[in-house]
Design brief:
Chain A is α+β, with helices and mostly antiparallel strands and about 350 residues long. Helices cover about 30% and strands about 20% of the residues of chain A. The longest helix of chain A has 19 residues. In chain B, about 30% of the residues lie in helices and about 15% in strands.
Chain lengths: ~350, ~170
């Protein structure tokens, strides 16, 4: 880890002033990803600006029946918050599927969004990586790429965004509130993270002088028919090979509305609204779920070691939609997949 | 290897260590410290306060050997900057016993022979203390899942789980 300066932000305006004054600085909240990357010399900020004491730690109800989650609410507090458990159990489940209890105690809501999209070559400073060192090449394309993306990839980068929480937030159509020198703005969750294209060094559309202040959930929580199904190499504390957040609104056996987002398959949480639209009006059965999976994976592309993910994703989508339809969400402690 | 997207390159002048004055309450005792900002809480405990019970395993948040309680919550001290915890209460394995009696988890780990080499044990016990305080684990499956941030390379898991169950029943 290189040497760096440390300062504390007193409020959001102060944090914005400090980052404007030192563009090579980084905000730090939980630090679980940033400090790890700093130890590997992947991130080398001149200064860390400590935002962990800012008053962004509340979960508040909004006028239109949703929730506004402060950017500094720890992941564990959010997962166990009574309003999240009651109204957005898919989000609670996704959070508990990720990381470990210790990391969830440390990691913040905003930090979860801003953890780096990454792969082991991004961490390995002895190898080329366009995300770490733009223009140097991608070691994963022709390297070990078992964990890598199958959707939305480019010749520049095939890394995946590892968050579970963000997959549920994408499916729930959350909005991200940010503050910057020109005031506040909000982005749809789909617009927050980006695909690699020719500039994989940018994971998100957040500007360098902006700060995430809150994540807002709309009223609709799909609390009756949902699941978060995560498939990984070991039963706990591992990144997803494929994960699926699935939510349905049913009328009898007819689908009125569907939500579907995938983790472990792309540079960002992968949500395809055309697939969701194709499900609505259909009977909730295996044929409809299989057709949805085929459609979602129509442009999927495998590499030397990860082509299995395409078939795996198809099965996980069908299984997740089946769990959602029957109102039997995946348990995150008993790992038996039904 | 050239690196971009980074503020500094190796060989550039690096800032001189500006030490920052902080105070931690460690195991009930106020500990004023002057430390560089890049000192992790783990290194502050081990190298500055001589509390070597907390172990450095992977130093990347993957093994849980460095688990301590900060303001009652279990965290990985290796991924925490000490300066960020100025004013916090820290409990390490050296501080879990009270009034000369072992903590119920310490006694349970002895009763169930819950270690072999013992290197992960301080982290396991601090993590289990956090788990019990959180109150979310009721079943064996839930204990297993919520202890998954602590690795035991000797594989003493069945005995660790039995010890935690015993301590949970008596707490």
């Amino acid at each position: 880890m290189i040497n760096f300066q440390y300062s504390r932000a007193n409020d959001v305006a102060d944090a914005l002033r400090q980052i404007a004054a030192d563009p090579a600085a980084k905000f730090i909240a939980g630090g679980t990803n940033l400090i790890d990357l700093m130890k590997e010399d992947v991130e080398r900020p001149s200064r860390v600006i400590d935002i962990s004491r800012l008053p962004l730690k509340t979960v508040e109800e909004t006028v239109d029946g949703g929730l506004r989650i402060g950017a500094l609410v720890p992941n564990s507090d959010l997962a166990y918050h009574p309003l999240i458990v009651q109204r957005y159990p898919m989000l609670a489940s996704a959070i508990l599927a990720g990381a470990s209890a210790q990391l969830r105690n440390m990691a913040s809501t905003g930090g979860n969004l801003l953890q780096r999209t990454r792969c082991y070559y991004f961490y390995d400073t002895a190898t080329p990586c366009n995300k770490r060192d733009p223009g140097s090449g991608c070691s994963a394309l022709n390297g070990l790429n078992r964990m890598h993306a199958i959707l939305g990839t480019s010749e520049s980068c095939i890394a995946t965004h590892p968050s579970d929480m963000c997959v549920a937030l994408a499916a729930l159509d959350a909005r991200v509130h940010v503050a910057g020198p020109d005031g506040e703005r909000a982005m749809s969750f789909a617009d927050f993270h980006r695909l690699p294209g020719n500039s994989p060094q940018h994971d998100t559309n957040l500007r360098p002088d902006e700060i995430v202040t809150a994540v807002e959930l709309p009223a609709r929580g799909f609390a009756d028919n949902y699941t978060y199904l995560k498939i990984r190499d070991r039963l706990s504390y591992a990144f997803a090979l494929v994960s699926v957040a699935a939510a349905l609104e049913l009328e009898g056996d007819k689908i009125k509305a569907a939500r579907l987002a995938l983790g472990g398959v792309a540079h960002k949480p992968w949500r395809d609204t055309s697939v969701e639209a194709s499900l609505s009006g259909q009977t909730a059965n295996r044929a409809a779920f299989t057709a949805a999976a085929e459609r979602l994976l129509r442009d999927a592309k495998g590499y030397a070691h990860n082509a299995f993910k395409i078939d795996l994703a198809r099965r996980v989508i069908v299984r997740a939609l089946t769990q959602a339809a029957s109102g039997t969400p995946q348990s995150q402690s008993s790992k038996f997949v039904r | 290897m050239a690196k971009t997207g980074a503020a500094q390159t190796l060989g550039e002048t690096i800032p001189a260590p500006t030490k920052i004055a902080i105070s931690l309450k460690v195991n009930g005792v106020d500990k004023p410290l002057r430390i560089a900002p890049w000192t992790t809480l783990l290194d502050a405990l081990r190298d500055h306060l001589d509390l070597t019970g907390t172990k450095k395993g992977c130093d990347h948040g993957q093994c849980g050997a460095c688990t301590v309680l900060v303001d009652g919550r279990r965290i990985n001290s290796c991924l925490t900057l000490a300066v960020m915890k100025d004013g916090a209460e820290v409990t390490t394995i050296e501080g879990v016993a009270a009034n000369g009696a072992l903590h119920p988890l310490q006694q349970a780990f002895i009763d169930h022979d819950s270690f072999q080499c013992g290197y992960c044990t301080p982290g396991q016990i601090c993590s289990a203390a956090g788990l019990i305080a959180e109150g979310k684990a009721k079943t064996v499956d839930e204990i297993r899942e919520l202890m998954s941030g602590n690795i035991c390379r000797c594989g003493a898991y069945p005995n660790i789980i039995a010890a935690i169950q015993q301590a949970m029943e008596r707490s």
